[in-house]
Amino acid sequence: MVGHGAALLLLLLAGWQKVLALVPVRDVDVDLGQNLTLACAEKDALVSTGQSSGVMWVREGREDGQVQRVKVELDGSFELVNVSRDDAGNYSCTLDNDADAVKTRINVRVRTPPPALHNVWVKPSTILANILWEVAGTGGYPIIDFTAEYRLKPSADEEPEDWKPIIPTHIPPNSRQIDVYHLEPNTTYSFRVWATNQLGPGEIVEVEGHTHHSIEELELARHLLAGVENFDTRVWVAAVGIVMGTLMILGLGTCYLLYHECKAPSQLEEQEVIELVPNIILNPGFFDERTERIPQDENSNNQTTTRLNNNTVIQPRRL
Fold first, then answer.
1. Which of 192, 213, 247, 314 could form a disulfide with 206 if both were Cys (CB 3.0 to 4.6 A apart)?
2. Is the pLDDT of residue 49 over 50?
3. Is the peptide bond preceding residue 154 cis, with omega within 30 degrees of 0?
4. Which residues lie closer than 8 Å to 101 by C-beta, 6 or more apart?
């Protein structure tokens, strides 16, 4: 008899699952902490036709803690007060006079702050650390930003210090890591990070990391040159070509200016020679004047004579 009863129960459960599979599911979203009201669609149809029947709501996998927050109204609607994370799931309603037929099936999705980040770990160096994480879910709303903080790990007899923000305080939602600078070598730090959406900050994940003993230049160079193996040499060649081309243009420009400055005085001399030609034509004796100097007399008279091109001598005036 026990075996036949168990077999009958399995058949009933299998039939119920087939009935549920045939009923379309309607999705309903509700924020954490709000009240939820679900209506049985077939009940409204019965009321409009003048029939009366009771409504029974069933939740798949209902927990005992939900009973105190559940209420079925006179019109057959299902009301759930102060929705929690555990209230998410499938709800269905049936009528008392047709309990074998599911009339309405609703999938309740509870929107919450973001859940805890996954695979949060720290990659420490000597004076810096790199915090990495993965996102498992958004809570129903898009993630606005991430927040990370750090502090020294307190010893057993010390009071923990305040958390220090990691810059930037609002990490972009597409980021999956953040660097922490100005750490002390050979020191243990606590780090925590969380996500935030429009419902507020999510669960905080805290991890620890211990910085290395000493500052090694090779390690710092490795951190600064991370990704060099993937660097495209064509970019470097193009940059060098641009710099060399710029220097060549500057050199040619400097040479042209120097050449122009050196050439300018010769042009000025040619211009002076051209200006002297009219003077020579208008005054043929311009270059034929000769000057003879005679020693001064007892009265200190300047007896310098001037001889023109026509051999006429002009004596200085005596005092």
1. 192
2. no
3. no
4. 19, 94, 95
